[in-house]
C-alpha cells in the first residue's frame, strides 16, 4: 500500500498491487502480474451468472477523507453461460464500516460501464471515478471494500485503486 498526495486533491490513498496480502478474491481466482491484480471469474452460480470481485481488507480509512474511488482497469471478455443474454456491465462497490461489520445491499454504490462506451473501450486500459460521498451511509471508518467487477465471465486487470478527496470538496456531513 502506497500513500500519495497530489496538488489536485486533499487526500489520496493509493493501492498498488505487488502482493495479494490484504486481498481476498470473491468468486474469482487472483494473481499479481507485473504489479497488476488479475482476477479471473470462477464458476457461475446456479442462475448462470458470474460475480468476480476482490475484497480489500484492513483499510481503516476515514470516510470524510475519501469522496471518490478511482480505478484503472481493463478486461478480457469470455463467453457467459448464455451467450444470447445481455451482459450486465455494472460495477458494484460494497463497503463495511467500524459500526456495520458486514457487506449489505444497503451499503453498495453502482457504476455502469456502458456509460464509458462500447466493448472495445473496456478491453483497453480505462479509468473510472466512482463517487462515494453521495451514499448516505458512507460515514465513520471504512474497514473493508468489496469491489465486484461485473456479473460477467472474463479476466479483469486492475492496475491500481485510489481513494481520493478533492481539495474543493467541503462536504461536512461527517
Your description of this structure?
This protein has 174 residues and is mainly β. The protein has one helix at residues 119-122, and strands at residues 9-16, 23-26, 28-33, 36-41, 53-56, 61-62, 68-77, 90-97, 108-112, 126-131, 141-148, 154-166. The strands form 2 sheets. Strands 1, 3, 4, 7, 10 and 12 form a 6-stranded antiparallel beta sheet that branches. Strands 2, 5, 6, 8, 9 and 11 form a 6-stranded antiparallel beta sheet that branches. The longest helix is centred in the last third of the chain and has 4 residues, at 119-122.
Describe this protein with a few key phrases:
single chain; 174 residues; mainly beta; 6-stranded antiparallel β-sheet; 12 strands; disordered N terminus
Weakly predicted, low-confidence segments: 1-8
The main sheet comes to: 6 strands, antiparallel
Radius of gyration: 16 Å
The overall pLDDT, averaged over residues, is 86
Helical coverage, percent range: under 10%
Label the overall shape.
globular
Q: Note the gap between the termini.
A: 25 Å
Element-level helix/strand string: EEEEEEEEEHEEE
Strand content: over 45%
Number of helices: 1
The total count of strands amounts to 12
What structural category do the secondary elements indicate?
Answer: mainly beta
How are the SSEs ordered, and which strands pair?
Elements: E1 9-16, E2 23-26, E3 28-33, E4 36-41, E5 53-56, E6 61-62, E7 68-77, E8 90-97, E9 108-112, H1 119-122, E10 126-131, E11 141-148, E12 154-166
Antiparallel strand pairs: 1-12, 2-5, 3-4, 4-12, 5-11, 6-11, 7-10, 7-12, 8-9, 8-11
Amino acid at each position: 500500500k502506497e500513500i500519495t498526495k497530489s496538488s489536485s486533491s486533499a487526500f489520496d490513498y493509493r493501492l498498488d498491487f505487488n502482493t495479494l496480502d490484504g486481498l481476498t478474491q470473491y468468486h474469482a481466482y487472483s494473481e499479481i502480474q507485473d504489479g497488476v491484480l488479475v482476477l479471473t471469474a470462477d464458476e457461475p452460480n446456479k442462475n448462470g451468472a458470474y460475480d468476480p470481485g476482490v475484497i480489500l481488507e484492513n483499510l481503516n480509512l476515514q470516510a470524510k477523507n475519501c469522496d471518490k474511488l478511482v480505478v484503472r482497469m481493463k478486461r478480457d471478455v469470455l463467453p457467459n453461460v448464455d451467450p444470447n443474454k445481455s451482459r450486465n456491465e455494472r460495477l458494484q462497490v460494497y463497503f463495511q464500516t467500524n459500526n456495520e461489520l458486514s457487506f449489505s445491499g444497503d451499503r453498495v454504490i453502482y457504476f455502469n460501464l456502458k456509460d464509458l462506451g462500447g466493448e472495445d473501450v473496456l478491453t483497453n486500459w480505462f479509468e473510472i471515478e466512482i463517487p462515494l460521498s453521495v451514499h448516505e451511509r458512507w460515514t465513520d471508518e471504512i474497514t473493508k471494500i468489496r469491489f465486484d467487477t461485473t456479473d460477467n465471465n472474463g479476466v479483469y486487470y486492475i492496475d491500481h485503486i485510489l481513494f481520493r478527496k478533492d481539495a474543493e470538496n467541503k462536504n461536512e456531513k461527517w
